[in-house]
Amino acid sequence: MQTKTSSAHTQIAELQQAIASVVKGKEDVIQLALITLLARGHLLIEDVPGVGKTTLAQALARSFHCSFQRIQFTSDLLPSDVIGVSVFDPVRQAFEFKPGPIFANVVLADEINRTTPKTQSALLEAMSESQITVDNYTHRLPEPFLVVATQNPIEHHGTYPLPESQLDRFLMRIRMGYPSKASEKEIVRNGSSASPAESVVAAMDAADVLAMQETVKSVKVDDSLLDYALEIVERTRTSEQLNLGVSPRGVVMLHRAAQARAFLDGRDYCLPDDFKRLILPVFAHRVVVSSRYVSTRKKSAQAEAILDEFVETTRVPL
After folding, report:
1. Structure confidence by residue, pLDDT tens digits, 67-112
2. Distance of alpha carbon 5 from alpha carbon 211, whole angstroms
3. Which residues contact 141 (CB under 8 A, 6 or more apart)?
């Protein structure tokens, strides 16, 4: 058992190195992306254009042997362009389902908030239940299944805000941020490649990822840590500063993410820090700031500030 665990962590280290070879100076962001993968969640990357959102998604997909599809979301994209369509076969005199690009292990939903809410909703069943229903027939999606969506800040032109039901299905929302001066210099020097993610060498296969996801489920979580998380959740639901608090799905996502963080750290048990460090990326996109408390700062930053206050003023279990 110890040998299997050591082997898994060797593979994880190789996975991190493979992604870091093209996503420079973003170790924390890479760790959050891997936590999302191991926790069986979906990842939303929000930031301004040109900071490496798509590169991170492509590098994550290429870091293990799996099927990969990229969907460029535009205002004229239709739900059938995502999930597929039933086509009449004149030879068989029957309709045949032609799967869309959603049928892949890793799906990059690029600039997801540039398409209409109708097309955005095509992802809801897939992200929640790993299946698609078309013409009363249910089609299972391949496992593991991960949606990595990128979006520009809502303040940018030509964007449609994701509804709360869609946001709630993403385990995390993260930001890339601008690179450091040293990292940016390295990016410029190596900028001859049009698609740097193509150089990523796969460190494992889909079966390895599924095995790790099962191992993550067995990471121990003490009741005191759950009580700590639930106390913060309760504050989001009763605070006058928020119109919408964290959903039960959000608590489940935090629990799974904390287990995955402990696994990445080589532990079979969670620490308070596993929960504390993940509350903002897991909860911030699930809450809605009350209009009475809206300030000049962006709503997303204000939500994070409110959550940060809850974290700092809630007693951490010993």
Report:
1. 999 999 998 999 999 999 989 888 888 888 899 999 999 999 999 9
2. 11
3. 102, 103, 126, 130, 131, 132
Strands 137-140, 94-99: pairing is unpaired
Position 2 confidence tier, pLDDT thresholds 50, 70, 90? very low
Examine residue 84 and state whether it is found in any structural domain, yes or no: no
- The contacts of residue 151 (CB under 8 Å, 6+ apart) are 44, 45, 46, 111, 112, 113, 159, 162
Q: Are residues 69 and 149 in the same domain?
A: yes
Q: Which domain CATH number covers 239?
A: 1.10.8.80
- Model confidence, pTM: 0.90
CATH at 6:
3.40.50.300
Written as six digits, the tokens of 170 are: 């993403």
Q: How far is CA 210 from CA 26, 95, 254, in A?
A: 25, 33, 19
Q: What value does the CA radius of gyration of the chain take, rounded to a whole number of Å?
A: 20
